[in-house]
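Re: the request from the purification team.
They wanted to know what the chain is likely to look like in 3D before they choose a buffer screen. I agreed to run a prediction and write the result into the notebook, where they can find it.
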Amino acid sequence: MPAKAPILYPAQARLLRDLGQRLREARLRRRFTVSQVAERADVSRPTLNKVEQGDPAVTMGTYLRVLTVLGLEKDVSALAGEDPVGRKLQDAALAFPRRAPKQSVRRKNDPPKENISGALRASTDQDESEPA
């Protein structure tokens, strides 16, 4: 787990607490003890307690392992499955702003490119104007 829990907005913290509560209720419905689920998920009992409290410092992988032990891992595939805003943007084929072309970087000892190309142009212009 990270040393410091990430800061969440209240609505996000509520979502995690609710998820933890649902996981706890699922464990109790199956009559699993904290020790059984922790052992099967390969986490410590204090970590499982943090999962059931909705602690944001617990990794997503740990939540997924607990879901798998409880037989609820298929519910994860529903996360972000529907993307109505993204679909509307895709259907509208909105043009995304393009990045400006990169400018060439001149090195200290390199002569300016304009002078070289200008000199080449001038020499080719002279060659064309001279009679053969």
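For the purification team: The two ends are 81 Å apart (CA to CA).
Please add any questions underneath this entry.
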